[in-house]
Amino acid sequence: MTESNGSVSPDHQHRVSMPDWEKRFRAPRVSLPDWAEDAPDRSLFVSNATGTYELYAWDRSTGAQRQVTDRPNGTTDGVLSPDGAFVWWFDDKDGDEFGVWRRQPFEGGPDEPATPGLDPSYPAGLALGRDGRTAVVGRSTDDEGTSIHLARSGEEPVLIYRHRESAGVGDLAHDGALIAIEHTEHGDAMHSALRVVRPDGTTIAELDDTKGGTEELGLEVLGFAPVDGDTRLLIGHQRRGRWEPLVWDVAAGTETDLSLELPGDVSAEWYPDGTGLLIVHSFEARSELFRYDLASAALERVPTPPGTVSGATARPDGSVEYLWSSAAEPPAVRSTDGSVVLDPPGMKSPGSVPVEDVWVEGPGGRIHALVQKPAGATGPLPTVFEIHGGPTWHDSDAFAAGPAAWVDHGYAVIRVNYRGSTGYGRAWTDALKHRVGLIELEDIAAVRQWAVTSGLADPARLILTGGSWGGYLTLLGLGTEPGAWTVGIAAVPVADYVTAYYDEMEALKAMDRTLLGGTPEEVPDRFEASSPLTYVEEVEAPVYISAGVNDPRCPIRQIDNYVKRLEARGAAHEVYRYDAGHGSLVVDERIKQVRLELDFANRHLEGVRDGGPGAVPVG
Q1: Distance of CA 525 to the CA centre of its chain
Q2: DSSP-derived secondary structure for 556-575
Q3: Most buried of 14, 80, 236, 362 (most Cβ within 10 A)?
Q4: What CA–CA distance (Å, rounded) separates 309 from 315?
Q5: Average pLDDT in the 160-164 region?
């Protein structure tokens, strides 16, 4: 904008001079809107419009939008009640993920405790009833494991489920008569079984694919049919080696297998009238949508551009809204009616370069890697291996501001969907058990060798980086392959696996027991082999670590243990601690962290040459 005298305002000057990588973080973003089942004009979404990610209520009938939450460290966990009367949101302390549910009237007003009588805990699922007074609340604590309670307005919460192993609320039936629970009572936190109970906690049906076979197969709740009295439950299964949906009638005991014959993982949700399913098909780092008609078994493509659909929902009028992006194009919430559903005002995010697919033969099979490099650049280039978290996650052809920032600064970026990643079949996801960390690094090493021999990557300027599990693999890789990497940058990592186990939230303890085959007392050799602390004396590359002091997933004490060992041997390192949990929801904080990472990399690569240009200074 211009001021009254025609001069450019300071704000506009700042925006014009701002580098593209920073604009990508600052540009207003919105999530896919959730909508109230019985009041579909009422929606809830997340936006960073104020510079912090918060919840917003949106009345589609009037176009009015209202910020619901306003907390220093942001808020993203929220849900609308089916009648659209209330916004529920989870209130933790500075990102520690330990707290209580609160609710606020959709039109605005004071917050109030949503479930009086339930003490603070880690969340383990939430389902709200259409009667406006019923909630099924999942909780997890270190002392009690998982518990599920039926909470009704004006009444004391009633315990309907409890177990030491991890579990969670799946869904509440449309008429409130049935509750679906995902549980891991068998001790395998990677493969859930299902139980359907009445509101008094009595069991009416169970499904467990981990029993009686040699394979470990999981199940997941996708939702009850949106029709009163309908006992059909849409679930996901792995019986053919990948995630697929089926319809389980819990009262009749029948299963309807859809057999869609799609090559990748498939998820689904109901269309609002219960006659069809919205299918989300993910395959080789991209996704697409279909409508499946339950009566005719016809599968019809829902047109979307090539790229990644990060979320989709079918509206009562039959249209589909979806959040879409590609590596080159920023995200947008679109509709199959041709409109852009939400287009936040303000600065628009610059795009980036497209992603290239690379397949590399590895020790466990073909590895899929996604490559981005500066337009027109030829190798060998300084190269960043940005490793995803999870580990049960995957990188895709989706817009990501972090990799785009590296590309802007002259780096090639390679993202590896190592064994443990989702989207390539159950066997690929489950392969890392017992040799945790080491298997993933074998795949990363195979892609690194391809990158160097192909001429893309400069072997003297290789950066290993990632957040969460990617940060863990970064520290583990620096210690187990000390000569392979020039710089390491780890965000919110596991650094000392044993201490992390004792300090982390209970659900992650269960996951670690599954991955490693027991506790640190039961399998000490496995924890030792998989812990970055074991190899800290071997680290040669300069190390940058960032950590949230309130992080319940990768707690700060185990990171401090690792840093003390680096300090004791005088190893080159820098540590940045910030007042949040497992990452930050504050845009300025995210930008600060990226700037620090870029600066660290550029300083330690300065003067290192191997036939290619040096790193571009931070803008």
Answers
A1: 30
A2: HHHHHHHHHHHHHTT--EEE
A3: 80
A4: 16
A5: 97
Yes or no: say if 399 and 482 are a contact pair by the CB < 8 Å rule.
Answer: no
Q: Do 14 and 347 meet the contact criterion of CB atoms below 8 Å apart? A: no
d(CA 605, CA 597): 12
For residues 539 and 76, give the distance between their C-alpha atoms in angstroms, rounded to a whole number.
Answer: 37
Distance between CA 588 and CA 586 in Å, rounded?
6
Residue 482 structure tokens: 């000390």
Alpha carbon of residue 546 to chain centroid = 19
Sheet holding 340-342, edge to edge: 308-314, 320-325, 332-335, 340-342
The number of residues in the chain equals 619
Q: Contact 75/67 with Cβ under 8 angstroms?
A: no
E-only strand ranges, 51-154: 54-59, 64-67, 78-80, 86-92, 99-105, 112-113, 122-128, 134-141, 145-152
What is the CA 204 to chain-centroid distance, rounded? 33
Q: What is the spatial distance between Cα 400 and Cα 397, in angstroms, rounded to a whole number?
A: 9
Q: Helices 469-480 & 438-453, crossing angle to 10 degrees? A: 70
Instruction: Encode 116-127 in three state secondary structure.
Output: CCCCCEEEEEEE
Residue 13 has pLDDT above 50, yes or no: no
- Mean pLDDT of all residues in 125-153: 96
pLDDT in tens, 597-612: 999 999 999 877 543 3
Mean pLDDT of 117-122: 97
Neighbouring C-alpha atoms within 13 Å toward the C-beta of 399: 19
CA 541, chain centre distance (Å): 29
Going edge to edge, which strands form the sheet with 356-362? 356-362, 365-372, 412-417, 381-387, 457-467, 487-491, 543-548, 573-578
401-408 helix and 587-605 helix, angle to the nearest 10 degrees:
40
pTM: 0.94
Amino acid at position 187, single letter: G
Residue type, 585: L
The radius of gyration of the chain from alpha carbons, rounded to an integer in Å, stands at 24
Nearest to 423 by CA among 400, 397, 442, 385: 397
Which residue from 450, 441, 447 is spatially nearest to 469, judged by alpha carbons? 441
pLDDT computed for residue 134 by the predictor: 97
Torsion of the alpha carbons at 312, 315, 320 and 324, rounded to the nearest 10:
-40
Pairing status of strand 356-362 against strand 340-342:
unpaired
